[in-house]
Write a structure and sequence with these properties.
321 residues; mainly alpha
Amino acid sequence: MNLNINIFSKFKNPTVIAAGIAVLLLIIGEMSAPGFASFPQIINMLTVASFLGIVAAGQNLVVLSGQGGIDLSVGKVVTLGAILGGAIANGMDSGIIVAFAAVIMATFFVGILNGIGVTLIGIPPLIMTLSMGIVVESISRFITGGLAVKGATPFMLKVVTGRFLGIPGIVYIWIIFAVIFILFQNNSRYGLSLYTMGSNSEAARLSGLNVKWIRILSYGLSSMLAGLAGFLYLGYLGSIYNISLGNKYNLSSVVAVVVGGVSLAGGKGGYLGVAVGCILLQFLESFLTVQSIPSWGREIIMGITLLVLLTAYARETKLRQ
C-alpha cells in the first residue's frame, strides 16, 4: 500500500509531469510530422533550449527568494550581453577574455541595482525590473548606434556551434552548467539560505540570515546569468541585428521556472525541474511550429499557460500565508 502511494506521489512531481508531457509531445509530433522526434531534430531543439536554460537558472534564484520575486529585465540583459560582448571582442579572439569579463561585471551590476531597488527602496519587483529593462535597452541602442554588431570570434563560434558526436558545444556547456548549478544551489550556504528565506523570510531573518543582501545577490546573479546567455547567444548567431532578440526570454523564463515546479511563493523547487521545463517549452514551441500555428498564436498559448499556472500558485501562496 505504501509502495503504491510512493509511486503515485512521484507522478505528482512537477518534474516528472513536465518530462512526461515532453515525451508525449515528441510522440504526437512524430505521428503528425515524421522526423519531428529524429535525433537531429531533438538536438536542434535542445540547442535552442540551452540558452533559455541558462537564463531560467537566474530567474529561478529570484523566484526562490520569495516575496513575489521576479526579474522581467532578463530579456533586455540577454541582448545587452550579446551586444556588449560583440562590441568589445570585435570578432577577434584576443579580445574575448576582456569581452567576457565586461559582460559578466556589467550585467551583474544591473542585477544588483534591481535588487537594491526592490529590497532597500521597496519598489515592486515587476515595476523595478521592467523599468531597468527599458534602461538596459537604451544602453544597447547607444552601443550599437542602430548598426549591426558583428563581434562573434572564431573561438566563440567553434565552442558554441562546433559539434562533437553530432551535438553542438552549447548543449555540452548547458549540461556542465546544470550539474554545477544544481550542486551550488543544493549545497552552498547561499543556496540553503535561499530556500530558508523563501519559505519564511521573517523566520530566516530572526535566525541570523541577512535576508536583504541575499535577495540583492539573487537579482545580481539573475542578470549575470542572462548576460552569460547573451554572450553565448552571440557565438550561436555570429552577429546581432535585432535589438530585441532577448525579449522572448522574459515570459519563457518565468514559465519554465513555474512549469519546473518552483513555487512563486518562494522556497520550493530546484533547477533540475527548471531545466526539464525549458526542454518542455522548446518542444512545445517546435510542435506548434510544425502544426503551422503562427507566432502570435504560439505566444497566446504560452500566455494562457502562464496564466493558468499563476492562478494555481496564487492559491498555494494564500495557503502558505
